[in-house]
Amino acid sequence: MRRFLSLTVLLGIVLGLVSCATTGPGGRHSLIIIPTSQEVAIGSGMAEQLAESEKFLDDSLWQQYINEVGQRIVKVCDRRDITYHFAVIESDQVNAFAAPGGWIYIYTGLLSRMDNEAEMAAVLSHEVSHVVARHGVKRLQKALGFALAYQLVFGDNPSKATQAAVGTGMGLLFAGYSRDAEREADRFGFEYMTRVGYDPHGAVTMFEKLAAIGGAGSANVFEKLSRSHPETQERIANARAWIRANQARLRAAKLTFGTERYQKMRLRLPALPVDSSAATH
Q1: Which of 146, 194, 195, 232 is most buried, taking the most CB atoms under 10 A from its CB?
Q2: Quick one: which of 206, 127, 219, 214 has its CA closest to 173?
Q3: 104 - beta bridge partners?
């Protein structure tokens, strides 16, 4: 009887969580067992580990810049119940990723290949969208299984369960999301960058750059470590289709690429290796 009552209470709480777990434009809801407080705690733990394992760009102007653009995107996104953090990792890798709870990272190897702010906003909007849609939490719930997820919420030692979840989260960080999740993040991202005032053609040119890097046979980590990303040509087609479907409001909006400011900031980035740079052509 006691077990039945516990399960009944758990079901009621889970249903309550579902009712408030909005995951993107349109107010769609998803089954989220891990509460926001635990999601943020897990993300914070992962951020601490990344601070020890990664080299971050030592440039306060770039940190201000990435945070400014990122926070503008946050202001128009569909999830603002958490604090978002943006950071630049100094590495030749062509990569960007988001950890649960709002920690978003982008590599200098990717930034160095961009030509304007709209392209950067496209990547940041995509990563913000993963957080909005709680893709990282959903993936973590699946990997942890019900038992550990239950311990996170109802266990006697939630801090120990959080530590275990951080370890699992680090292992999943570069595992990639499902193709549907990636398509969803792309779609939300087009919307968010446009709401801020960036031309969504920046997403098209960003995808074209990724296609060129991959086509040249270079180590495109953004694609290799996210093998579930839809094919880049499909992403380009989806972006163009979204632009066509929203032509009327795009024409009425004052959209920008932000080329001049971005190219000034790009001069501050570490130079790409000769072989890596050549691979983009």
Answers
A1: 194
A2: 127
A3: 86, 98
Structure tokens, 32: 């989220």
- Helical H segments across 54-178, by residue range: 60-76, 108-111, 117-132, 135-154, 158-172
Query: pLDDT tens track of the chain, all 281 residues?
Result: 544 444 444 445 444 444 345 555 555 667 888 899 999 999 999 999 999 999 999 999 999 999 999 999 999 999 999 999 999 999 999 999 999 999 999 999 999 999 999 999 999 999 999 999 999 999 998 888 866 666 666 666 667 778 888 999 999 988 888 889 999 999 999 999 999 999 999 999 999 999 888 754 444 444 444 444 568 899 999 999 999 999 999 999 999 999 999 999 999 999 877 544 323 22
Can you tell me the distance from the alpha carbon of 129 to that of 77, in angstroms, rounded to the nearest whole number?
8
- The domain segmentation of the chain, as residue ranges, is 19-268
Residues in the chain: 281
CA-closest candidate to residue 130, choices 192, 48, 68:
192
Q: Are 54 and 95 a contacting pair, CB within 8 Å?
A: no
Distant-in-sequence contacts of 220-223, Cβ < 8 A, 24+ apart = 220/94, 221/93, 221/94, 221/95, 221/107, 221/109, 222/93, 222/94, 222/95, 222/96, 222/110
Structure tokens at 162: 């959080």
Pairing of strands 103-107, 96-99: antiparallel
Q: Residue 96's beta-bridge partner residues?
A: 106
Spell out the residues 6+ positions from residue 90 whose beta carbon is closer than 8 angstroms to its own. Answer: 55, 56, 57, 58, 107, 108, 270
